[in-house]
Amino acid sequence: MNLIRNLYNDGDYKMSMMISLGTFWGLRISDILKLKYAQVYNIDEITLVEQKTGKTREIKVNAQLKRHIADCYEKLNPRTPDEFIFTSQKKSVYSIQRINVLFKEIKVKYNLKIKNFSSHSMRKCFGREIFNRSGSNAELALMKLSQLFNHSNPAITRRYLGR
Description:
By secondary structure, the chain is mostly helical. The chain is 55% helix and 6% strand. It has two domains: 113 residues, hpI Integrase, Chain A; 45 residues, no CATH class. It contains nine helices and two strands; from the N terminus they run H-H-H-H-E-E-H-H-H-H-H. It has a two-stranded antiparallel sheet. A hairpin with a 6-residue loop joins strand 1 and strand 2. It is globular.
């Protein structure tokens, strides 16, 4: 949350929104990069088909994230809601490689104590947060995360989360 807030306060609204969407929703970077403003702005639920698996996901948008998306939307002021969110100054959608370069710059700028900070870190952060908050339901959470991440079994998910 501090990183999201710091990026926003420093005027890096796109990266603030990207990291918030990635850590709140647990989407792969390939799915995040395909998002358009109309899909996320002023909505209570997003439905999307994951590129890698072809699975449909419905995700509720909590009030805090909805407010953050609206704040970023107003600051970024897109010409049309049908624009892709994560575009360069040339209006082309960022590549995954470019996002990873930007994440390395963010790691240095904000002195993040994360060994390998990349676009995939958002998905892992989401999983760890769900697992850590599950308390006595940790095994059930692990099973659900295993399904969500499309892992073949919960043991792989446990290793993925570093548990």
